[in-house]
Design a protein that fits this description.
The protein is mainly alpha-helical. Helices cover 54% and strands 4% of the residues. It has a 4-stranded mixed β-sheet, sandwiched between helices. Strand 3 (487-493) and strand 4 form a beta hairpin. Helix 1 packs antiparallel against helix 3, helix 1 (9-27) packs parallel to helix 4 and helix 7 runs antiparallel to helix 8 (213-224). The longest helix is centred in the N-terminal third of the chain and has 37 residues, at 71-107.
């Protein structure tokens, strides 16, 4: 590995460009997460009313007070959606994922060889790929890397004044995502690590500048900046609410929501993040004499966060990638000093490593990963429409009959909040922090009772719920509701099916089945009753996907 002063600039820009390209290909995909719809609904409400959304207008019997800590993110996505729809949101996702490895490259351009940087950036992208969704955490991963860069630069005495940039960063962060406390952990781990290094008299670890007034003052200001929020005290306490959801204390949430399940139960599914963490730890052990104590604290913190719940695993990507690149560089340098032949071969090896981000870009852009792993990640702009009951939500928004919606899969509720509000409200949605656990328990009771025709005829439903939406894969619920006289098929959408209650009160009094049914149209069977085309053998007048050469072999 050459000395830092001799790192050539052109190969660095080539490596950084390939990493940025791989990041863009990883993020420029169809929108495919349910949460984006309730974020859009909240942002749309704020744009229309010109104020921060402080209550929950979308739910049946909502909580009187809702700390909508994601309001800044919601305004951003709602404004972009208004300007360019889901295509522009896909572009935003691509640019955010591009920016993360680009910041890694710029932060370490004078400290890490370009070949090793290409490898570490690719490993970081692989580890974060599962969480590359249009959610606030996509901003959090970028902000985490920025905070690491600023604190690490100040610890080396190269940019103590830059720490003042943490103040606006934390103000933006606390108004976009509840994980803003990652920035606080990084800042004060730097201070705590410097104290440890001074007490241990570690000469190689440079931590003195973080204990000076010029560093402590901006970090204290950045900490106080976290109170710049519509909910100063509640935002400060919000991390404890998050902890209660993912630490196993809220047992119904922990085992009722797949992404909140303990990571140890599915550790093998997250081999990318696990491998990155182990490599970073190995590199730091190899360079242990020069590793500042705060780097150990940061790695331990993100590893602990990742072990709490599956949704957190990908969050270690930026910290793990940064630490691996920084300390793996030193380990490789020492290997080169011990075995000169390895040093002589480092140039060719570094050039070969550039294949990794190039290959990653090709795999993502050609949708090869989609074919190999059967993932929902699809390259290109727009919404992954076939996953969401958008047509059904629009149908219910225009239907004159009254009544609210209960979705068997509470993630579907967000679609109705965006497309059917204010005509319809929903029983439960994915905003788990906005609902008490009792609401989630009640939904699970209703789902259990809707599995058989007899129980479905007797289940106690909220009075305002008239429409029950069932996912197309849930055969037990579909069969039970089809057989129960209490429900009538109303609308078919490929992702889900909507049933209407026949006993829903009409005019405030209990209704007869005939009265309730008279208000509802005939199910949309005609939309699916299409003949086969004699020439192609395909369903006539139906949109079919034309496969390109790089999408299907």
């Amino acid at each position: 590995i050459p000395r830092m002063a001799r790192f050539p600039i052109r190969p660095f820009w080539l490596a950084a460009g390939l990493l940025a390209l791989a990041g863009f290909c990883a993020g420029f995909t169809h929108i495919w997460n349910f949460d984006i719809f309730w974020h859009l609904a909240g942002g749309k409400w704020m744009l229309e009313h010109g104020q921060v959304l402080r209550t929950d207008p979308f739910s049946i019997d909502p909580q009187p007070h809702w700390m909508n800590i994601h309001w800044g993110f919601q305004l951003v996505v709602a404004a972009l959606y208004k300007a360019g729809g889901f295509s522009l949101l896909s572009l935003l996702k691509g640019l955010l994922t591009l920016a993360t490895p680009a910041v890694l490259a710029l932060a370490l351009r004078r400290r890490v060889h370009w070949g090793w940087l290409a490898f570490c950036g690719s490993a970081m992208l692989l580890a974060m790929l599962e969480r590359v969704r249009l959610r606030p955490e996509l901003f959090t991963m970028l902000y985490t890397l920025l905070a690491l860069w600023l604190v690490d630069s100040a610890r080396r005495g190269e940019g103590v004044r830059r720490l003042w940039a943490l103040v606006p960063l934390m103000i933006v962060w606390v108004n976009m995502h509840g994980l803003y406390f990652f920035g606080l952990v990084i800042m004060w781990a730097g201070v705590g690590g410097s104290v440890i290094d001074r007490l241990l008299r570690r000469e190689a670890a440079l931590g003195g500048p973080l204990l000076g007034r010029s560093a402590l003052l901006p970090m204290a200001a950045a900490t106080l900046a976290c109170l710049v929020s519509p909910w100063p005290v509640e935002a400060a306490l919000h991390p404890f609410t998050l902890f209660s959801r993912v630490s196993g204390q809220a047992i119904y949430f922990t085992f009722g929501v797949a992404e909140l399940q303990p990571t140890m139960e599915a550790l093998g599914r997250h081999w990318e993040a696990v491998g990155l963490t182990l490599l970073a730890a190995a590199a730091m052990l190899a360079d242990r004499r020069r590793v500042p104590s705060d780097h150990w604290l940061v790695l331990a913190f993100f590893a602990a966060i990742g072990l709490m719940a599956r949704r957190n695993v990908g969050l270690i990507a930026t910290a793990g990638g940064y630490l691996l690149a920084l300390h793996g560089q030193e380990a490789l340098r020492r290997l080169g000093e011990r075995w000169p032949r390895l040093a002589r071969a480092s140039g060719a090896a570094a050039g070969a490593v550039l294949i990794v981000p190039a290959f990653l870009s090709a795999v993502l852009a050609s949708e090869a990963l989609h074919r190999w792993q059967n993932t929902t990640i699809r390259f290109g702009p727009g919404l992954l429409r076939q996953n969401y009951p958008v047509d059904m939500a629009r149908f219910l928004a225009e239907l004159p009959a009254e009544g609210d919606v209960l979705c068997e899969n509470f993630g579907d509720s967000a679609v109705f909040q965006f497309y059917s509000y204010p005509r319809r409200k929903t029983f439960m949605d994915g905003r788990l922090e906005a609902h008490p656990m009792e609401r989630f328990v009640e939904l699970n009771r209703i789902r259990r009772d809707l599995r058989t025709p007899i129980a479905a005829s007797l289940v106690d439903l909220p009075p305002s719920v008239r429409f029950v939406v069932v996912s197309q894969t849930n055969r037990l619920h579909l069969s039970a509701l089809m057989q129960s006289k209490r429900f009538r098929l109303l609308y078919i959408d490929p992702p889900a099916v909507c049933f209407a209650r026949t006993d829903w009160p009409v005019g405030g009094a209990p209704a007869r089945a005939s009265d309730a049914a008279s208000q509802l149209p005939v199910p949309n069977f005609a939309a699916f009753d299409r003949p086969l085309d004699a020439g192609s053998g395909l369903v006539g007048d139906f949109p079919t996907q034309r496969w390109r050469w790089y999408r299907q072999n």
